[in-house]
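If you are new to this repository, start here. Below is one unmodified record pulled from the training split, so you can see the exact layout before writing a loader.
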Amino acid sequence: MAESVPVRCPSCRREHRYTAPAYPCVCGAPVVPTLDPRGATPVAHRVWQDDWVTVRCDACGRRGEWPRPEVGCSCGVVLRVPVVDRDTPDDPQGSAAATEPPAPARSVTIRTALDAVTAGALYLRRLGYRGVRRADQRPPSGIGIAARGVVALVDPAVRPASLRDVECLWLTAMTESADCVYFSLAGYADDARARADALGIPLFVLEPTGTPRPVNAPADVLDSTGTDSQAP
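And here is the target side for that same chain:
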């Protein structure tokens, strides 16, 4: 069960009730981090490595990287909630974690950028992509996630994705010799969509319910057929 803890803003002293997110492990079990509310700190500067946290699944022992829990205070401060590092099992990559069964179809209501990333990761796993993780290269905008054979961009911005955003994702995928997928909350500019069509990039809009909606032909095909990048 998700943990709910009090988190106090050090700037205005308001107290918030925060429920830890449940991350979707590839084994199908929810992964709920253990929070340390006493150590919540304001986010002054964004650092790529600090935006992610490693959490172990109690069911299979697999350790996965997920967006770090954060709380937005009404005073404008964003608080980062520390995660307690639980003991690692003797065989974290053992037989239970060696195979990755398809994740059950489910979605997450999008309220934060973290929710958007989780929705994108869930969808990639539902399509059959394995080893979903944080992308090795930090994108110029949005949040990058990757899996075997694919690089994806989750764009939580309130503006439509631009032509440059789409082309940067395509160039990143080219350097990785991988396919690419774009998830946006606010849709796409007309020239960005036209360029994606020409390059064969699947474009999805993330609905508030967390369901990715295909908005071009490559996305329709991917949504219908999934991927051949299945685990053996």
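Two things worth knowing about this chain: The radius of gyration is 18 Å. Residues 4-98 form one domain.
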